[in-house]
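Lab notebook, bench 4. Still working through the backlog of constructs that have no structural model yet. Next entry is a single chain of 553 residues. Request: give me the structure tokens for it.
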Amino acid sequence: MFPVGALYCLMVTIKKNTEQEREQARRQVVEHYLAQGINTPEDLHRFITAITRQPMPWKRICPNHKTPFDYLANAFFSDYIHPMTGKYMGMVNQLVIASRGGSKTSTTAKINMLELIFKPGIEISSVGAIQTQAQACYDYTRNWIYDPLVGHLVYDSTMQRTVMNNRALYRQLIGTMTGVNSPHPNKLRADEVELLRSEDVLQEMYLVPMSSDQYRGSMDIISTRKFPHGIMQYLVEHAEELYFNLITWCYKEVSEKCTESRRGIRRKWMELPHPDSGELMKYKMYEGCVHCKLAFSCRGDLPQAQGYYKIDDLLKELGRTTKRTWLAQKECRRPGFEGLVYPDYIDDIGNPLSIVIPNCGIPEDWFVSESYDFGSDDPTAISWWAIRPDGKKAIKIQEYYQRNTTVNHHVQAVLKIREEFYMHDHRMFIWGDPQGKGMRVEFANRGIYIKKAYNVIDVGIDVVASMMEQKDENGHPQCQICERCVETRKEYIVYHFKPGTDKPEKKNDHTCDADRYGLVSTVALLRKYNFKESGTGTLRPTVTDRPLVGTRP
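Model written out:
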């Protein structure tokens, strides 16, 4: 009798064997693992190929990317302890970003099928964000568990409840509040969560998985990342604090191999922009790549691919979609940035433009604006801007960003930053949230006197946006931010309008609000009273002309 590895090779060698030979080999592979169990990733790959008649993509193409098989193996072996190391062979709580057409739903169904067969008594709930997604996952799962070689293991199957003879249980749910308020299974898998109608449904899902004596509780989420400020982007940004393990694969991990008949034989160097920096770099490709429209994205990688997705289909999709859609949904890069409050901050693929500059100090004779956005559970954000006396150039030199701490701690941090940048040598304007009267009093009691800032939101946003867009005499943006302002740079990339409105979303906006208070209030004041380069001019005493610290004037 053939060893299992040889039977597997016989089964997948389509051109050299008859259908009868391949089917006989498939039967022997399945019967072997039903009797002996699955103990290694190689066993898993052979069994899943035998049931589905399709080898799973397993080769990693892009740096730091995984494959559909990695996701499947991690999920299946999450309850298996390695006999040598004593550690779990897989991992729970996977957050998967995958491309359109990247076999997300079918891979989830394969995991469901494997656990139903090989894990007695396990309970699984699989959630489709919408009805059609849920139906597709159930159809895949049902087709495979009713394969003639394993169908005898099924006791009964409906979309609401599938039961195996080994007491394993599977429910297919729809992503609604009522749908996910189900009993507590060991495993919850959510497919295409980007399409959920409400984040409340996701919150409800967090409460579903539960461990048992045999199986660890786990929640796996898999989806294409479609929106710049959607559910998936939020999960990616907070993956660590939500206890998720991030996995990504793009179209290259599931694409078929680019053959010599398409690419040619001779190697050729091509100069293409780097996908992240945009800088031109040389890539070692093939002579046929010169005329291929996919070359800018492939960069010579597809000759190493081992998947199933047809390159002709990729070329058609490339011709029909925008670059932003392709980068987001096929290459799994961050989605396009439509709807940003400050679109001039970044380029088409999310790289900060010349608004971000190397760290610097405060130029001589420039004024300083110190502005506060108060928070308790939310962070307290404080911004320091160096502003030219004519109000036509501003540089953010430092930030403070802290939550859940005392006013005394804030004050000490402010005094330290003032001393570090010699701000006492410059004239200062101190502004704060007009709604934060209580906090302004608390700071005043400690010697920092904060005036109410100008706070007409749409006008303020227009002023900041126009300074980012307009150039100074050297061709640089009138408004620039030092590299050290890390939290500011994070928030500017995601600060966006509510869909269909001109109102900004009240989320990730703490440094943005502080900047608007200080920058707009100070610039408007300086431009109104026409300060000269020397810094001379007359201020109305009602604005702010108080000392930095000390007693009330």
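Notes after review: Confidence is low (pLDDT under 50) at residues 531-553. The chain has three domains: 61-250, 254-328, 356-528. Flag for follow-up if needed.
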